[in-house]
Each structure stands twice: as structure tokens, then as C-alpha cells.
Amino acid sequence: MALAAALQRFIDWFWGASFPIWAERGWDAKGGFFESLDNSGRPIVGAPRRVRVQARQVYVFTTAARLDRHAGAGRVSDLGFDYFVVRACPEAGARGCLHALNPDGTALDTRRDLYDQAFLILAAASRVRRSGDPRALGLARGAIDFIDRELKAPAGGYLEDDVGSKPRRQNPHMHLFEAMLALAEATGDDTFLGRARQLKRLFDMRFFDRRELVLREFFDDPMSAPDPRLGDIIEPGHMMEWVCLLDRYAALTGEPVADMQRLLYVRAQEIGRDSAGFLVDRLRLGSAPAGPRRLWPQTEYLRASLVTARLGLDGAGDAAARLIEALFASYLHQPVNGLWCDQYDGEGRSVAASVPASIVYHLMEAALEAEVHLKGVKV
Questions:
Q1: pTM for the complete prediction?
Q2: Which of 58, 193, 217, 267 is most buried, judging by how many CB atoms fall within 10 Å of its CB?
Q3: How many CA atoms within 13 Å lie on the side-chain side of 236?
Q4: Coil, helix or strand at residue 341
């Protein structure tokens, strides 16, 4: 399948089939976003709600409203943000956001988790970019102040949360990098870009292993070395995600990062693709790629293929076209058009019990990257 036709098919599927399902059924009339739908598209009620998912959905619907992709997106964005602020951010977000809510919106887990704060900031940035929302900007600034005050680690980076969880991880820092880039773009404030630069240095100095040419995920407490138990676990989807985030970074800073982007992309393919051509969720360094594979690493693989194709990497565009075709033959080939299978096991059998709302964010980012590639303009 030609790349342009494949990209248009994916874009049409997301905005024409998938997003309308979440716009109609993903919002709870009693308040908040459902955590997931069942395989027929009905909301799964009674499940705890991760606050990061609430923030992701605010980001998704705000972005859809900004781009005028769905008539009801702005209303859901407003309702979702109001719910998020009132229910998930006690004391107007003086200590950022909680970790999880009960279905009725009461607090379930009051821990302050770095990953959750990153998505609070990303959601707020989308609100600022759409309308200049001062409440959103204040919430983001409050979360940043809290992170600096309570989660900043003496030896570099940030702690996992306010209860001392271990091991330390690169993943929350990656999403904080994403959030700072989004806030810098939304406000034009170089302070946020400076914070992104600090996180990029952490990537250069701690996260990327220049001997093995892989992204390390788990670290000891000072982040000076990989965690002795989990340090050899690699997640190729995150390597692809960094390819895309570095593209945004380069656009905002002008710093040359193309060599690193190509290296990450090629290496993730080398170590992470299974026999079916999909990225596995994770593997031990030096082992063969086998085992379960969720949808989100594939969407990041698609995005990174398009980014590196624009950087002139041979075969990346063809890889994107093949991947889209494979997605429509598997993950996206479901009885209800617009839904997906979230995970397959190592034998290619579906092991997904539901359709999680958390993946809408990944799918939208892939659809937007496809639009950038087709049109050559930023969205």
C-alpha cells in the first residue's frame, strides 16, 4: 500500500470511527472519563480511575477542539478539565494531582506521582494553547512548584512519588520532557524550554546507554547506574517515543538531534521487533524479542517511522506503510469499527479484556503525525 493512502486510511479511521465512539461513550454523565470500554464499546462502570487517564483525555479532547475535529470536543474538554481540577487537584493543585479516584470522584489514592504530574502539565498546556486558559496555566505552574519542592532528587532528576517508590524510572521524566515542550510551545516562555533542556541533558547523561545503544528504563536511587534487578529491561516503544519528542525539541531549540533520532529508531527495530514485525512491550537486553505486545508501542513505531522518513532514513516510509497495513489486519480489525485490541501475547493471541482510554492519546498523536507527514505543516 502506498504511504499516502495508508496514512489517510489511518487518519480517517481515527477521526471518523474511533474518536466519535469516545466522544459519545467515554464521558460519564455523572462526571469524569471512563477508564475503559468493553469490546462492544460500552463503558465499564465501577472501575477505579487513574488520574493520568483523566488528564490524557482532557489533552485529547482539548486538542480535538483546537483543531475543530469534532463538534462536541470543546464541551467535553471543559467538563473534563473542571472535573479534573475539582476532584483530582485538592487545594487548587497546591501539591499537584492525586494518583487515583473512585468512580464517584472521591479520592482513592492520594499519592503524588511524577508521571501523573507530567500529564497534568500536558493537559494544562493544551488548554493554554487552545484558549490561553489562565486557570490551566496556574495549575501547571503550581504542579511545577510542587515537583521542585517535594520531588526533586539531590543527585539529579526527580523522585517517583512522595512515598519513596523504587526503582527510579526514565519514563516519568520522558513525559515531563514532553509536557515542558508543550508548555513552552503554548506560552512562548523560555523558562519551560529551559526545563526541557535540563531533562534532555538527563537523557544524554543517564538514560541513554552509549555502550549498548539502548534507552535504560530502571535505575538505582541516585540514578547513577541501572537498577541491579530490572536495569537490563528495555522497552523499545519508549525509544521510538524519544525519536518523536526529540523532533519537537529540535523544532523549538534548533539543536541538532537527527543522528540520535536515527540511532534510536534503528536500534529499537533491531532489538525490539518480533517475527510478525511488531514491537514487543519489553525484553531483557541480549534476549530475543518475544512475548506480549500492546498497541501503544506500535503507534510510537508509526510516529517514529514518519519522523525518521522526513530525516531521510532509507526504508522508514515503507516501514510506516507496512505497519499501518499490519495494524488494520490485527489490532484495529475488530467487530466494532473504531475500537482495538490492546494487547496480543507472544503467540499472536488477543489477551485484552477491555479497550483502555489511555490509548486514545497514543492513537491521536499518531494520527496527527500522519497529517503532518501528508500536509507538511504543524498541527
A1: 0.98
A2: 58
A3: 35
A4: coil
- Residue 32 Rama label (left phi>0; alpha psi -120 to 50; beta): left
Tell me the pLDDT tens digit for each residue of 268-311.
Answer: 999 999 999 999 999 999 999 999 999 999 999 999 999 999 99
| Rounded distance between C-alpha atoms, residue 46 and residue 15, angstroms | 28
Distances, alpha carbon 75 to alpha carbons 70, 131, 235, in Å: 10, 13, 36
Which residue reads 512519588 in cell numbers? 161
Cα(45)–Cα(270) distance, rounded to whole angstroms?
41
Q: What is the dihedral of CA 212, 209, 249, 139, to 10 degrees?
A: 130
Give the rounded percent of residues in the chain with a pLDDT score beyond 70.
Answer: 100
pLDDT in tens, 158-185: 999 999 999 999 999 999 999 999 999 9
pLDDT digits (tens, 9 = 90+) for 76-96: 999 999 999 999 999 999 999
Q: Which domains are present in the chain?
A: 3-375 (1.50.10.10)
Cα distance between residue 104 and residue 121, in whole Å: 24
CA pseudo-torsion sign 355, 360, 362, 364: positive
Residue 65 is placed in which grid cell? Answer: 477542539
Write out the three cell numbers for 82. 473542571
